[in-house]
Amino acid sequence: MEQATAQSLDRAAEVVSRRARDRAPAEALGLRLSHVTAPTEVGYQRYTPSLSVVLAGRKRSIVGDDDQVWGRDRFIITPVDIPVVAGVVETDPQRGFLAAIWQLAPTLVAEVAAAMPRNDRPFSEIDRLGTWSPALADAFARLIGLLDEPEHIPFLGPLIAREIVLRLLQTDQAPRVLAAVDEGDPVVPRAVGLLTDRMAEPWSMSALAAEVRTSQPTLFRRFKEATSMTPMQYLKRLRLGEARHRMVVLGESAAQAASAVGYRSAPHFSRDYRHLYGQPPAADGARLREQLRRGGIDSWLSPGA
Description:
transcription, 2 domains, Homeodomain-like_sf, transcription regulation, 305 residues, AraC family transcriptional regulator, globular, HTH_AraC, alpha+beta, Jelly Rolls, 13 helices
């Protein structure tokens, strides 16, 4: 990592370590901040269109079949809502684990992209993890720095946000950033919305392609490019995450949760659940409910943490 980039990310980490609990300024900037003092188990999270950054420590993120451990040397662009299984695997001795997720506003991306040459590099050539440029790291650090000057957020926040989008569009992640804009190509956002809102329905590729008015090969290719998952993998991850949430937070039984999210076979549900989370659903739900009762479950139960 270049020295200038490292210095910018150090500045950002120092601010986040002090301001992680100041929700109002962070929300005004479109930020979700996380400060964890010890490694965590993996849990289900929903990422909306965003830039995800680790400023201290390391994190494991599982998206479809893509399983990666990453830290502050990289970042992740999420162009559409994506179900992720993630957890903290390493904390910094001084700072613990620090992370920030910045909302990517499709209207802002469209506005900035309209004034720039279009990057048509194929998704298949793009690593899911982006690499910082000094200019991008500096802009992001200045955005984080506004947490110390909340009175300046209404004036400087929009300007720095535009610069961050511009700098992102100058990286190899530009096609993934542009995928957050659904104008002219609504196939993936529409498919994501259908699977999310109607996850309990017995979806098939043919039914989903018909709903979004495209061919099955086109849907498969575009969906995999944008999410690193096939539509059916995406649906399975949605269902398992929602089932776990229902068991832990709502207190439903494994059978109730499985039925609510669309599973018709208890053995099928149990097999998929154990494969993802490593334990049978009933035992895992009981364990996590007890942790929740004792206050031992952190932000991984919440979307986008």
